[in-house]
Amino acid sequence: MESQTFFIDTEQDGSAHILHLNGYLDASTSQILDEAIQQVLSHSGKNMVIDCAKLSYISSAGLGIFMKHIDAVRSAGGDIVFCTMQKPVFTVFDLLGFPILYKIVEDQSVALSIFAEKG
Amino acid sequence: MTMLLHDRICAKPLVHELPYIRQYASQFMLKAGIDDAFNHELCLAIDEACTNIMIHGKKDADTLITISLEYHEDCCKVTIEDNALTFNPLEIPPQNMDEYFTKKQYGGLGMEIIRRLIDEIKYEHSQLHYPWNTLSLVKYFHTSSH
Fold this sequence. Notes:
The complex is a heterodimer of chains A (119) and B (146). With 119 residues, chain A is α/β, with parallel strands linked by helices. Chain A has one domain (6-113): Transcription Regulator spoIIAA (2-Layer Sandwich), CATH 3.30.750.24. Chain A is built from four helices and five strands. Chain A has a five-stranded mixed β-sheet with strand order 1-2-3-4-5, with helices on both faces. Chain B has helices at 18-32, 36-56, 97-102, 110-117, and strands at 3-11, 65-72, 75-82, 120-127, 131-140. At the A-B interface, helix 2 and helix 3 of A face helix 1, helix 2 and helix 4 of B.
C-alpha cells in the first residue's frame, strides 16, 4: 500500500506566498498546514496561493484550517486562492459550497495574476 | 439485500490510524470492483466518522474501533463500532453553510460531509458490560455525486 503522507513546499513570488500541498490532508496531518499558514502570517504574508496539484485527498480537518485563517488573512487585505485542484479534492470543496467563499482557479499563473492585479 | 463481500478491521482511536483505515476501505472497494468516485466518497465518510470518535472518545489502551464493510448488490454498508465514550454524531445539528461562511466558523463539518454523502445513518448505544457505540452507514450505488 502507498504511504499516505503530507508535506508542504513553500516559495514566494512577488507578494504571494505559494504553498504546494503534497499528499493526504486529514486530521492526522492538518496541523502541518496550520503551522505553515501561521508562519506565512507571522512574516506579514497575506496573499496565499494554495497549489493543490499534488494534493490527493482532503477531509473536513483540512477545510477547517483554511476557515480558521481566512478572516485574519482578509482582514489584513489579503486572500487565499486555490489552484490546480484534482477532481476528488474539488468534490469535497464543492460538496459543502466552499467555491462561494474561495477563489478556485485552473492554474498557478492565474492565481498569481489575481494578486498582481491587486498590487 | 444479498451480501457479496465483507471484511473487518480494528484500529486504535488515534488520528494516525486514519490513513490505514482509508487504505483498508479503498482496497476492499477495489476488490469489489467499485468505481473510484464512490470509493472516494465512502472513504471520506468513514474518515469523518472515525475522526469524530478519535476526537470525542477516550484513548485508553483498551479502546478500539472496529470497521466492518459489506458489499451488496445495490449498496455498501459500513458498521463502525467502538468502546470509547458515548458520542451520538446524529445529535450534531445540520450546518447552515451560508451562516457558517458568514460567521467564518471552522470545525464541525465532518458530520455535514457524512450527511451529504451517505443515504442511511443509524446510531445505537448499548451498555451491557461496558459502553458500546455502533454507527451504521449505508450508501447506495446510484447516489454518487460524481
